[in-house]
Amino acid sequence: QLQLVESGGGLVHPGGSLRLSCAASGYSLDSFAIGWFLKAPGKDRDKISCITSSGSSTIYEDSVKGRFTISRDNAKNTVYLQMNSLKPNDAGTYYCAAQKWHCEGLSGSFGSWGQGTQVTVSS
């Protein structure tokens, strides 16, 4: 069974950076696309980025384009989300989840959810 564990969250000032990690166990990530989702307070869980199983294609939600970069290291069975120029609206709990091969659909199309990692952006 594929299990995902997020890490790397924390408190950062506006304009700062964080790198989140999504580490997999129990199964190779080679055949899974991985999505990153943000659950902000009072809002629905939104897909903000995704990378296909091969890493050849990535997608980003408009509000994070140019600031966030998703990448993967299949040898380490880990997917990363580099977050730069963080804003208060980026705060919340970040989750990673898996989908076979491609990045398709919204959160309901993904499984093997991690427990989340908290990001706080505050001065």
Summarize the structure.
The protein is an all-beta fold and 123 residues long. It is built from no helices and ten strands.
Explain what this protein looks like in three dimensions.
The chain is an all-beta fold. It contains no helices and 10 strands. It has strands at 3-7, 10-12, 18-25, 32-39, 45-51, 58-60, 68-73, 78-83, 92-100, 117-121. The chain has a 6-stranded mixed beta sheet, with no helix packed on it. A 4-stranded antiparallel beta sheet has the order 1-3-8-7, with no helix packed on it. It starts with a strand and ends with a strand. 33% of the residues are buried. The mean pLDDT is 95.
Give the key terms.
single chain, 123 residues, mainly beta, 6-stranded mixed β-sheet, 4-stranded antiparallel β-sheet
What's the helix and strand layout?
Layout: E1 3-7, E2 10-12, E3 18-25, E4 32-39, E5 45-51, E6 58-60, E7 68-73, E8 78-83, E9 92-100, E10 117-121
Parallel strand pairs: 2-10
Antiparallel strand pairs: 1-3, 3-8, 4-5, 4-9, 5-6, 7-8, 9-10
Shape: globular
Please give the radius of gyration in angstroms.
13 Å
Secondary-structure-derived class: mainly beta
Number of strand elements = 10
- How far apart the termini lie comes to 40 Å
* Mean of pLDDT: 95
Largest sheet, in brief, is: 6 strands, mixed
Low-confidence stretches: none
Report the β-strand fraction as a percent range: over 45%
Helix content estimate: under 10%
Topology pattern, helix = H, strand = E: EEEEEEEEEE
* Count of discrete alpha- or pi-helical segments spanning 4 or more residues: 0
Instruction: Provide the spatial order of strands within the biggest beta sheet.
Output: 2-10-9-4-5-6
